[in-house]
Specification:
- The chain contains eight helices and no strands.
- The chain starts with 5 loop residues before the first helix and ends in a 5-residue tail after the last helix.
- The protein is about 60% helix and about 0% strand.
Length: about 200
């Protein structure tokens, strides 16, 4: 059986990989990570087994490229037009959080993807939690595939995603629904605990 044309793979999975890259490295470096992901995928595509799940394969590559982008950014000096004088209280406008137009003429992401408060909250998460949240909630990968992509156990991937969502809810309380009633699952757990059973 012949492999599908790579162009079809990019068309089908490109938006999902870009969402994952935006969540993991932020909106400003996402296009670089996306490009690096598909360049690496193009080179490796002829060797891809026929039974491979393309979506998980691409997220694994995106994960590795996102780590490369983060590492490169940490070593790269910050370029400025002129060296600023030491600040005497007060800040300036713009900066790294200011929204930027797409340099390659592509359409702007939807408003929720340009939400700086959300990106700041995502960026504040530890890298493993941020990756697990992105891979599970944006790419739709099951925890076992997240575990394979990130090199942790399935339980660790599940826990990282759970902890990440919990942290996001704490840091963005006005954007999440507050539950006043315990869920059916929580009620069942509490009832079993009261009877002395293990949850």
């Amino acid at each position: 059986m012949a492999l599908r044309p790579f162009e079809e793979i990019v068309t089908e999975y490109g938006p999902m990989v870009l969402r994952v890259c935006r969540a993991v490295v932020g909106p400003h470096d996402a296009e670089d990570a996306w490009s690096e992901t598909f360049l690496a995928a193009l080179r490796a595509y002829p060797e891809l087994p026929e039974d491979a799940r393309v979506e998980a394969w691409l997220v694994t590559i995106a994960h590795r490229k996102a780590i490369d982008v983060v590492r490169a950014d940490s070593r790269r000096p910050l370029a400025v037009a002129e060296v600023p004088e030491p600040a005497v209280g007060g800040g300036g406008a713009g900066g790294p959080g200011a929204p930027a137009a797409s340099a390659n003429g592509q359409a702007q992401p939807p408003p929720w993807e340009r939400d700086e408060e959300l990106w700041d909250a995502l960026k504040a998460l530890p890298r493993r939690q941020r990756a697990a949240v992105a891979y599970h909630y944006l790419a739709g990968l099951p925890y076992r595939e997240i575990a394979a992509a990130t090199g942790v156990s399935t339980d660790a991937a599940r826990r990282a995603a759970s902890d990440g969502i919990k942290s996001l809810r704490r840091s963005l309380p006005d954007r999440t629904e507050q539950r006043t009633e315990p869920s059916a699952r929580q009620r069942g757990t509490h009832q079993r605990e009261e009877r002395g059973e293990r949850p």
